[in-house]
């Protein structure tokens, strides 16, 4: 993944957590603890606008419980919106959590966001595994 004609710069990161079923993984990702880690604050995953305590805001556009959520997201307050999708996929050994982000400004932001989402997914691992 890199630059596309339609979505601009984009990035994606995946992590598989062994022994965790997709339903349980979704429940923990959608919890206040889960959204605080990956979204930046406790947010109800329902379509519509959301605002975080640090001033970032966006819009949850699609929610398919147990599958994925698609929303706009800002890296910092006032930054241009990017499109973020978080997906839960069954894996042979457990569950894969995939993050895909589009409409990044340039290669530098892409590299920053790759590092950010790798850290986020690593931080989510113990939360996801807590119900295994």
SS elements, strand count:
7
Categorize the overall geometry. Answer: globular
Strand content: 35-45%
| Main beta sheet | 7 strands, antiparallel
CATH class: Alpha Beta
Number of helices: 3
How large is the radius of gyration? 14 Å
Q: Looking at CATH, which topology would you report?
A: Alpha-D-Glucose-1,6-Bisphosphate, Chain A, domain 4
Straight-line N-to-C gap = 32 Å
- Broad structural category: alpha+beta
Strand order across the largest sheet: 1-2-7-6-5-4-3
InterPro entries: ASHA1/2-like_C, START-like_dom_sf
Pfam families: AHSA1
Protein name: Activator of Hsp90 ATPase 1 family protein
Organism: Paraconexibacter algicola
Would you write up a description of this structure?
With 132 residues, this protein is α+β, with helices and mostly antiparallel strands. The protein has a single domain, classed as 2-Layer Sandwich (Alpha-D-Glucose-1,6-Bisphosphate, Chain A, domain 4). The protein is 30% helix and 39% strand. The chain has a 7-stranded antiparallel β-sheet. Helix 1 packs across helix 3 and helix 2 packs antiparallel against helix 3. The longest helix is centred in the C-terminal third of the chain and has 23 residues. The termini are far apart. It comes from Paraconexibacter algicola. This is Activator of Hsp90 ATPase 1 family protein. InterPro entries: ASHA1/2-like_C, START-like_dom_sf. Belongs to the AHA1 family.
